Structure formats: C-alpha cells, structure tokens
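Researcher: Good morning. I'm working through a list of sequences from a screen, and I'd like to move beyond sequence-only analysis. For each chain I'm collecting a predicted structure so we can compare shapes side by side. This is the next one on the list. No need for commentary yet; just the structure.
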Amino acid sequence: MNIRKPSLWAAASVAALLLPALAAAENSGWRLVPGRLTTSWGDQVTPENAWREYPRPQFVRERWENLNGLWDYAITRRTAPAPAQYEGKILVPYAVESALSGVARKVTPEDRVWYRRTWTVPAAWKGQRVLLHFGAVDYACSLWVNGGLVGAHTGGSDAFQFDLTGYLREGANELVLGVTDPTDTGEQPRGKQQLDPRGIWYTPVSGIWQTVWVEPVPAEVHLAELRLTPDVENSRLRVATLVNAAVEDHALAVRLTASTQGRVVATTVVRVNREGWLAVPDARLWSPEDPFLYDLQAELVRVRSPHGDRSRPKERAQLPAFGAQERAAYAQAEVLPGAPLDTVTSYFALRSVSLGAGPKVDQPHLRLNGRPIFQHGPLDQGWWPDGLLTPPSDAAMAWEIDWLKRAGFNLLRKHIKVEPARYYFHCDRLGLLVWQDMPSGFNRHLRNHREDEGEPIRLAASREQHELELRRMIGALYNHPSIVMWVIHNEGWGQYETAALAGWVKAIDPSRWCNAISGWLEQHRGDVYDIHTYEPTPLVPVAKQDRAIVIGEYGGVGWPIPGHLWDSSKRNWGYQTFQDEGAFVAALKVKFSGIATQRRDQGLSAAVYTQTTDVEGEVNGFLTYDRRREKITPAALRELNQKIQEGKP
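Model: Good morning. Structure tokens for this chain:
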C-alpha cells in the first residue's frame, strides 16, 4: 500500500533526541507524574513528540498542523467562568487523570476543566476556511476563540470539528475549551469509567484524550466525507461523495482513482452528494491472511455537466436525479482543465461478511468472503497505566496489535471503547478482525443483572443521546475493513430496546454482522447468539437455527506478577487466579482446548478470551498492564491457536 504524504506509517522517532527533549520538558514545567505504573513508550513521551502522527488516515489532506503539546489548564467549579489565571501546564492529548498529562488529578461532576493556548494561522492559509478538529473530548465541551463562543459538543468518544474562520485574526489567537464530565453519575456512554474505581471499573477519563489539530479547506466547497462500501460479488466499491454544503452546481463532481503500488487500477467520476460505483477488475480480497489495501484518491473537480448548460434551460438534458442514468452520465463526464478544488487520499479494501452454512449441519456460521471462518481473539479493553484511555503513542498501539497477530489471533473484540482512527488503520493493514462495542452508558442504580427477565426503561433524552453516539460511531468507523461486527450492548450495562436497536443498526449498516447483546439477557435478535462463560471449561452455547453461536467472553485466567501491578495493596484478581507461570499456562490450555472441542463438535463460530492485558486490578491478561512482561510468549499462543483452528483439543 502506497500512501501519499503526510506519512501514515511513521511513528515518532525519539531515540536520538530523548535526553535533550526530556530536559526541555522539565524546563517547560511538565513531567510525567511519578509513582505510577508506566510503559516503556510512556517513559519516552515529551511535549515535543506526543502523538505527532496524522490523525485521520482515511481522509488525508497534505496541509495541517498538530496542536498536541502543552496547554494551560485549570480546574474550577462547574458554574465558574473561565479563569483569569491558569494552574499550570497539561500535556494534550492525555486526560487530566492520567500520569502522562502531568496533572493526574481527579475530576468530579461538579468540576469544569479549562484548557487554553494560543495559535497563529500560517500565512499560506489565507483565504481558506480553518477547521479545528478534536479526536475526542470526554464529555461535554464548549469552545471560545478570542473570547467568542464558537460552539459546543456532547459525546465522549467521537471526533468533531469547529469552523474557526469567522473568529480568527492576524497574529496570536486564543483558544479556550471548557469541559465537564458526569462520569458514572450520568447515563451517558462512558464504558468502564467510575469515580470510585474498583473491580472491573476503572479510573475515569475527563477532557481532551485524543489529538487536537487544524487544517485549511477551500473557502466555498470542500470534500467532507467519503463513504465506502465493498461489493465483492460484483467486484466493485460503492462510494458516497459528500461535500460540506447542499450545492446545486451540476458541474461539481469527484474524480475517484484507485491504485496499488502507484499503478492505477480503476477510475470514475461521481457527482457530489451522490453515490457511484468504482469497478475493480480482478479484485484482491482482504482477509486476516492477506490484508490487502487499495489506495484511493478523491479530487473535487469541475466537469462538463451531463445536465447541460444551466443558463440555457431548453438545452438542458432531462436526467432523473439520484438514479442509474445520472450515475452513468457522470461516470463518463469530461473533467474540465484546471487544478482540483480539493484533494484527499484514502484507502479501501474489498471483503464481505455473511451468515451461512458452516461445518455443522443446521448450525449457521459466520463467513468471510463467502467461506466459513473461525474467529478467535482477545477482549481488548484499550487501557494503559500511564495514558488511561489514550495509548502513550502510536508506536505502542501498533506494537500491541502486531503482538496479537504474532500470537496467531485473527480477531479482537474492542470492549466498550472507541479507539483513535489510527488504531483501526493498524488493524486494517495488519489484518486483525474487530468486533466493535458501543461504549456502555447507564444509570448505575438501574441496570440489568444476569438473572433478570426484562429490560429497564430509559428516559427519552438518555435514549436519544445513546443512539446519537451509536450512529456517530458507526459513521466514523464505517470505512474500516477490519471492523466486521457491531456489538450494541454488553451484558446488562445499559441494555434497552435491544430488538429495535438491532434492526436499526442492521438497516444502517447491512454490510456487517450485528451482535445485539453480548452475554446475559438474550433477546433473539442479531446475527449471533453470544454467551459469556468463565467456568474452568467453557460452557457450550445452545444451538440456534437462525444465528451463529459465539462465546463473547471466556477465560479470565489471572496471574499477578509483583512489580507490574497497578496497586499491589489491593485485590488483584482473575476469574481463576494462580501464582506461577506453570499453573497459569496449564489453566489457559484447558480453556483453549474447550474452545477447540466446541469448534469441532458444536459449530461454534467464534470465541473471545479475556483479555489482552491486565487492567488496573484485573490480572487476567496475556501481558502485564505495563506491557513489560509476557505471561506467555506469542510463539506459544500461536501453537495453541493453530490447534483451535484445526479443531484439535
């Protein structure tokens, strides 16, 4: 795969500059908060190298500026105005509670976190619109630029942007962001955050926790979104080409060019705010064994309009809008001379998922590219001791995905967390299937338990916000080929109206499997029947004639290793806990053997092992929380995984 600059592959190289950079960090007033568990990547973070990579790998523009680094910060009462004086420096994009932020302070629902910095618009951006992007801010925020309120956003896991153009001036511009976060006192999607972390609930994350950046775009019309849907059966890609405005100009179109290693394999033209088809001859399908990606370039261009001259109504062609005739006419339209108005680069893959026949008669199976596939991989929480929800670096994130691939897994379940876009980029290029959970949100005093018979009722405002964020997640991650399943609910954590939500999600995205509820309260919807089983030998899901059977969680074998624990004074636990490597590996083999048996005899389609790493008080990972110690080697895991794929207990 050949990506245009800025490079998506490079992680910040710090080895040669580490000592002077650390000295500069000390002089800036920032340092990693001492006394906490850290990773080797976290030890290398400085204000100069914190998350420098291009943050949006499927929609790349050449001009941009990274605003990660040191900002002023203050924590006030929720009702207080912006402070006249700030308390110190915070390292963005790490959350206030994290050690890497340099702050490591608790934020309560009665607090407001303030961020401030100045920024000067590059002279070369004159005449362009300027967009400020936030990868994610938890949870509700408002932005002021030079004292003017620009806008607000609510939602802790999704990327968003503000148009700063009308608020900017020459010279330094003041950016101020105020953030509040109810954590588990509200019903908003939040995953495993809890003000009083313990057991399976972790340290809260408040404020900015993903990259902040700015880019210039054309002043009038610019590309806003590409929506890419593979059609393997017809060897083509469906592309929706969206711009920032509802324009009537029939001469505006998007020229799409697919290539591999610099060789053009397909091209077409699509009218803006329409869908078109990009035919890919002799398509090479994406799979975990061959994660092949095509490069894609989208150019906003002017064409000789198939609708004719707008100034001469009698000469205009009568083309019905939004249909096959218009689509075919634009595909053949002449592109007029001149530079493109806007250009972005992306990538795509062709792959299909379906539900169909498998190795066991009358038991449907999950299929990839028309063939049954057994999926096995870890529950992946995505927490880090030094960055909490924010990985210490892109290199750390990529290393962990590569470790799972070397261990022979073809799947991970991203557990009630939405990662930065680059995470899924690495899964796309390395070939790791992803089941993506919706982050849970619920009233902590009103949620399901395993033995319950029905679903709680949620307030209308709570439902609306949850569904808004669910739709945002699906939209933001839609183009990633590695994501093959949406998981709507986990156990009883905010479960409501499961049947309706499953139908809604399947209608929004029929190109992926839908897991209506992973574990606990079965509602007879979706593509899979999913159980959770932490018994020493995994239980067997009941056979289903209309859905695949999967184990959404099993395993949980614990081994606390001194020197690598989040808090050695507290209970460090697994579902079965052992004190040495031999007992840990023996218990693990029993678990894996049970899955191999079910794969061979029961028609099991997939299993998810808890979990990739230890997380705070949970010590049931393949790796310790600080990622400095393997409890089992990738080579040993690969051997066990091979037996599962062969159905050999």
